[in-house]
UniProtKB/TrEMBL annotation:
<dbReference type="InterPro" id="IPR050595">
    <property type="entry name" value="Bact_response_regulator"/>
</dbReference>
<dbReference type="GO" id="GO:0016301">
    <property type="term" value="F:kinase activity"/>
</dbReference>
<dbReference type="InterPro" id="IPR011006">
    <property type="entry name" value="CheY-like_superfamily"/>
</dbReference>
<feature type="modified residue" description="4-aspartylphosphate">
    <location>
        <position position="52"/>
    </location>
</feature>
<keyword id="KW-0418">Kinase</keyword>
<keyword id="KW-0902">Two-component regulatory system</keyword>
<keyword id="KW-0238">DNA-binding</keyword>
<keyword id="KW-0805">Transcription regulation</keyword>
<keyword id="KW-0597">Phosphoprotein</keyword>
<dbReference type="InterPro" id="IPR001789">
    <property type="entry name" value="Sig_transdc_resp-reg_receiver"/>
</dbReference>
<keyword id="KW-0804">Transcription</keyword>
<keyword id="KW-0808">Transferase</keyword>
<protein>
    <submittedName>
        <fullName>Histidine kinase</fullName>
    </submittedName>
</protein>
<dbReference type="GO" id="GO:0000160">
    <property type="term" value="P:phosphorelay signal transduction system"/>
</dbReference>
<dbReference type="GO" id="GO:0003677">
    <property type="term" value="F:DNA binding"/>
</dbReference>
<feature type="domain" description="Response regulatory">
    <location>
        <begin position="3"/>
        <end position="119"/>
    </location>
</feature>
<dbReference type="Pfam" id="PF00072">
    <property type="entry name" value="Response_reg"/>
</dbReference>
Amino acid sequence: MAHLLIAEDEPVLRMLVLDTLEEEGYRIDVACDGEEAYRKLLDNDYDLVLLDYMMPKMTGIEIIERIRQIPERSGLQILMLSAKSQQAERQKVLDAGANAFLSKPFSPIELIDKVEEMLK
């Protein structure tokens, strides 16, 4: 089964995403801030990372920009989760190197569908 990283600083949302994806059988690591997420991305091989846009210590955009500069991590699938759903923000995320964007709030079904789509 796929190995995922969830990087989300909001505890309730982090647990919702974790519980939803664990029920689908995914192997999951979690990070509570941007620096922890970046360290885990350097130390582990993930099939997909779900990044919150606004996190303490390092934003999702900063993480994407750093990860995309590492050749062995360049193909990593990245799904950005954000309440910043305006078109300009979405484009900024995609331009930085995210593969997809999911607007908060989202339903568990939307999350599962997007993750499955990205892992195919």
